[in-house]
């Protein structure tokens, strides 16, 4: 019997779900919090259980250095924010490549999102003045 056949047999015996997928969402979210958001989203291909897990991540980590162009980064950030479930946001890390001219409309959209989703911890690395709207965000405990 090949190792592939053995794995399939073990999967059938365990009900078809691996041990990692059987963990509660909160633990899986914690595991995914160590990844960039782009990497965490890629885990959706692992199984049906993981398919929509990323839309409820409490921590988001965007880094433009993982993208070839400013346009692809902008599109990715906008897509994630629009597809994410409407729940609170614990941690938000946003780094925009220092050689790119700051995309002010994107930053404005991100800051409105942060305020409306009650972000608690914020790490913002952009080449512009600190957005004033974030000063009024009462949920932020750490900048």
Write a structural description.
- The protein has 143 residues and is of the alpha/beta class.
- The protein has a domain at 57-136.
- 36% of the residues lie in helices and 10% in strands.
- It has 5 helices and 3 strands; from the N terminus they run αααβαβαβ.
- Strands 1-2-3 form a 3-stranded parallel β-sheet, with no helix packed on it.
- α4 runs parallel beside α5 (104-116).
- The mean pLDDT is 82.
In a nutshell, what does this entry contain?
It comes from Hevea brasiliensis (Para rubber tree). The chain is of the alpha/beta class.
Show the helix and strand layout.
Blueprint: H1 3-13, H2 25-32, H3 37-42, E1 59-63, H4 70-83, E2 91-95, H5 104-116, E3 121-125
Parallel strand pairs: 1-2, 2-3
Helix pairs in contact: 4-5
InterPro entries: F-box-like_dom_sf (IPR036047), F-box_AtFBL13-like (IPR053781), F-box_dom (IPR001810), FBL60-like (IPR055294)
Domain F-box: 17-65
Pfam family, one: F-box
* Uncertain segments: none
Oligomeric nature of the chains: single chain
Number of helices: 5
Helix/strand structural class: alpha/beta
Strand order within the widest beta sheet: 1-2-3
In sequence order, what are the helices and strands, one letter per element?
Answer: HHHEHEHE
Question: What is the share of helical residues?
Answer: 25-40%
The separation of the N and C termini measures 56 Å
* Largest beta-sheet characterization: 3 strands, parallel
Key attributes of the depicted protein:
143 residues; alpha/beta; 3-stranded parallel β-sheet; 3 strands
């Amino acid at each position: 019997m090949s190792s592939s056949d053995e794995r399939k047999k073990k999967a059938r015996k365990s009900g078809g779900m691996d041990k990692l997928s059987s963990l509660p969402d909160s633990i899986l979210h914690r595991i995914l919090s160590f990844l960039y958001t782009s990497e965490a989203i890629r885990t959706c291909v692992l199984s049906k259980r993981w398919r929509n897990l990323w839309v409820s991540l409490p921590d988001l980590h965007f880094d433009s250095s993982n993208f070839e162009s400013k346009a692809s980064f902008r599109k990715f950030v906008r897509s994630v924010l629009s597809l994410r479930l409407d729940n609170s946001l614990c941690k938000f890390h946003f780094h925009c490549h220092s050689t790119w001219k700051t995309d002010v409309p994107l930053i404005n959209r991100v800051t409105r999102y942060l305020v409306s989703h009650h972000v608690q911890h914020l790490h913002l690395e952009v080449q512009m003045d600190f957005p004033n709207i974030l000063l009024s965000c009462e949920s932020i405990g750490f900048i």
